Amino acid sequence: MRSISIKGTFFLFLKCFFTLILLITLVVLINTLRFNSSFQPAPIQKQSKEIVSSFSNNEKQSITQRLSQSIQFKTLSDTSSEHPYSSEFTAFNQFLKSEFSTVFQHLEVKTFNQHSILLKWAGSNSKLNPVLFLAHTDVVPAQANNTQKWVYPPFSGTIAKGYIWGRGSLDNKVGVLGQLEAINQLLAQKFQPERTLYFAFGHDEESGGKLGAMAIANHFRKQNIRFEFLVDEGMMITKNLVPNIPHRVALIGPGEKGYLSLKLSVDSQGGHSSKPPMLTASGRIARAVDKVQSEPFKINLKYSAEFIRHLGDDAPMLQRMVMANPWLFQPVASSLVPQVPELLATLRTTTAPTILKGSTKDNVLATEASAVINFRILPSDSIDFVINETRRKINDPEVTIQVYGTPSEPSKISSTQASGFQIIRQSILEVINEEPITIAPMLVIAATDARHYQNLTEQSYRFSPYTITPETKDGFHGINERISVESYIEAVHIYQQLIINSSLPF
Fold this sequence. Notes:
The chain is built from 14 helices and 17 strands. The protein has helices at residues 2-37, 57-71, 86-99, 101-106, 173-188, 213-222, 281-294, 302-311, 317-324, 326-329, 341-344, 383-394, 419-431, 485-502, and strands at 108-112, 116-121, 131-136, 159-160, 163-165, 197-202, 229-238, 248-252, 258-267, 271-272, 350-357, 364-365, 368-377, 400-408, 437-441, 460-468, 482-484. It is globular, with a radius of gyration of 26 Å.
C-alpha cells in the first residue's frame, strides 16, 4: 500500500508539474503576442509645406568644407579655471559668424560666458510654444599617445576616402554645423517659421555644461520660457548595427541614464615594500573595486522593451518573448538579448572603474591609494541608491567613499506617442523615403546637455540625424572619429525637414 501511495503521489506531482509548465508556456505565448500587437506606429500626418530639395554638387562641396574647417579649431573641453583653449573658442565662434553671416544677422544672438551661443528665430505665431535645438562646440582631446594611430591627424579635418575626419565630426560639431547649414538654406528660400525656434550651442558639454547649457537654461527659467519639445544629440541612425535587421534603424532617445563617479580612497603609513602589512592600501583599493564590479546591479527590462516593441516583426521571437515576460526572463535577460554593448547597457546601471592610483615607485608602499568608478544610472535607480549599494558591497570602514565630479540623476522618460517624437519620426521618413527604415526609441547611455533643460519641457529627445556603421561607431571619444560625406549631407537635409515640421502648428 505504501509503494502504491508513493507511486500515486509521484504521478500526481508529474501531472501538476507538466500542467504548470503548460500554463507558463501559454502565458508566455499570450504575453508575447500581445506585446507584438499592442504597438502600431502612428500614421505619418504630412504637415510640411514642402520637402527639402537636394543640394547641387557645389553646395555639397561647400557644406563639406565648412565642417572640415570647423574641426581644425581645437575647441577642447577643459575644466581648469585658466581656460587654456579660450582663444580657440573665440576664433571658432568668429568662423561661424563669418561663414553663416546671414544666420547671425537674421536671428537674435545672445552669448553666455564668452563662448556659448543662443540663437532665436522668431516665429510668426507667438501663441505656439517654442521648440529648442541643442548641440555643443567643445570636443574631447585626442590622447597624445594615440594620435599616431589616427589615419589622419585628429584636428586636420581631412576629407578623404568618402569621409570627413577628426574630432567633432561625430561629437558634436556635426550638430552645430548641421543645424546652421539647415537654417542657412531655409533663409535662402525665404522660409519663415510659424513657431519660434531656439538653437543653443554650449561650449562645455564634455565637462558638465555648467557654463554653457546650465547658464542658458537658467536664462530661459528667468524668462518663463517653456518648450513644446527639445532635440539634442544622442542616438543616431544605425546601419548593420542592430542584429538581424538588414536595413537602417533610426534610434531616438526619449531619456538618458544618470551620471555618477565615486572616488574610493585608503590612507596608510606607507613604508618599504620589503615589509608590507597583510593588506596594503593599494591592495585594499583593488579588493574594493573588485567587490563593486563583481556584483553588477540588477537587470531591468523596462527601458529596452520599447526598443524591441518598435522593431516589431524584425526583432527575433526570442527577444520579443524576453521583453514581454520580464517576470520570467529578467534574471537571465543579458544572455538572451543581442550582445551589443549599447543595448546591454540599457538593461542595468553600469559599473566602470576608470582611474586607479597608488604608489609612484615599485618598491614604495602607497601612503594613499584611490580609484574612481563611473556609474551610468538607470531611471529606475538613483544617485543615493548607487552610493548605498557601493558602500554595502565594499563593506570596509577603511575605504572612504566620496562623490567625484558633478553627478546627475537619470532623466525623465519622454513619451514616444507625443508630438516631439512623432515630428522627429516624420522628418526622418520624409527624407529617407526611398529605402526601408525602422524608427525606435532607445535609452541614451551617455550624458547630454538635454538633462539641464528637462524642467523646461515635458518632451526631451536625443537624436543626431547621421548614420553610423560598425566601422565608424567607435570614433566617439576614440580613434579615427569620422563621418561619411554622404551621411553628413543627409543629416543637413533631416535638420532642414525637422526645422520645417517643428515650426508648424501640431
